[in-house]
From TrEMBL:
Belongs to the nitroreductase family. It comes from Sphingobacterium puteale. It comes from the Bacteria. Its cofactor is FMN. This is NAD(P)H-dependent oxidoreductase. The keyword Secreted does not apply. Pfam families: Nitroreductase. GO terms for molecular function: oxidoreductase activity.
Length: 211
């Protein structure tokens, strides 16, 4: 199947069957797609937290716009970005990269020095605005991978970030939540949007071409 066919299949599920689980194999594939997402300077300034524990999902649901989705889906994927850039974080990524490529540490020192001169002189909130944007690339690839696997999903920003951050103690990890992805098996009897025609603006309204 083509990627376009996969994307035409998917929709943002509005209700999940709490009795059904997504296989670990498929969860791993979705996470792998997110892990290989491109990021600015290859820094991967975010993590994906996988919440399957029901008690935790119940706690997270207290701040959700659609709490039933949060409670009843198989897994909640939390895309959480670095709260700020630090010298240690930048060096850790580039040390790992050079080690994996059998290059001497410091091989990209002039470039990492430039990154540090930019990011470390910015306010933490500006850093976070940048790291947060990176997570959406990974979220998009995770949604596409789920569609290829015919795994139902829902991207979500309708939640209280403070609740998620506190429940998962993200401050201890130097992270802040950005977006969620509910993964599970749709409940056809309650997923009211599933029978509706999928609608997107036509190409001539969506695309502006300069030839």
């Amino acid at each position: 199947m083509s990627l376009i066919t996969d994307l035409q299949w998917r929709h943002a599920v509005k209700a999940y069957d709490p009795t059904k689980k997504v296989s670990q194999e498929n969860i791993d594939k979705i996470l792998e797609a997110a892990r290989f997402a491109p990021t600015s300077s290859g820094l991967q300034p975010f993590k994906v937290l996988v919440v399957e524990n029901q008690a935790l999902k119940d706690e997270l649901a207290k701040g959700a716009l659609n709490p039933d989705c949060m409670r009843e889906c198989s897994h909640v994927l939390v895309f959480a970005a670095w709260d700020k850039y630090t010298e240690e974080r930048i060096d850790k990524v580039y040390d790992f990269t050079t080690d994996e490529r059998d290059l001497p540490r410091g091989r990209f020192g002039s470039y990492t020095d430039k990154l540090k001169s930019i990011y470390l002189n910015e306010a933490a909130e500006h850093n976070f605005a940048h790291t947060a944007r990176q997570t959406y690339i990974a979220l998009g690839l995770a949604l596409a991978q789920a569609a290829e696997l015919r795994v139902d999903s829902t991207p979500a920003e309708g939640f209280d970030n403070k609740v998620v951050d506190e429940v998962l103690q993200l401050d201890k990890l130097g992270l802040k939540s950005v977006s969620l992805m509910y993964v599970g098996v749709a409940d056809a009897s309650r997923d009211w949007i599933s029978t509706m025609k999928k609608v997107r603006m036509p190409k001539e309204e969506f695309v502006i071409e300069y030839k």
